[in-house]
Amino acid sequence: QVQLVESGGGLVQAGGSLRLSCAASGIRFSINIMAWYRQAPGKEREVVARISTSGSSTYYGDSVKGRFTISRDNAKNMLYLQMNSLKPEDTAMYYCRSLIQDFWGQGVQVTVSS
Prior knowledge:
By secondary structure, the chain is mainly β. Helices cover about 0% and strands about 50% of the residues. Strand 9 and strand 10 form a beta hairpin. The termini are far apart.
């Protein structure tokens, strides 16, 4: 059974930080490019960040560059998203996704208050 389980979301004030985690099971984690997506109410789902299988290559959406950092631990089957300098416009449901074996997590809510 495939599971991608996000955690670490919550309510934070603008300027604060959160660290999201995604625990993967039932997939070959180390062969999967992994990504974080987000979807705000009334908006389309967008890619936040993406990381290569080894972690040596990363991609960030323009809106989060310089503030968010994606990382992974293949030994633990874990994906992370460190979010700093959070803004109210970062408020959304955040999803973990495996891209080679295409699976999504159930999402975790991040709310940034002004």
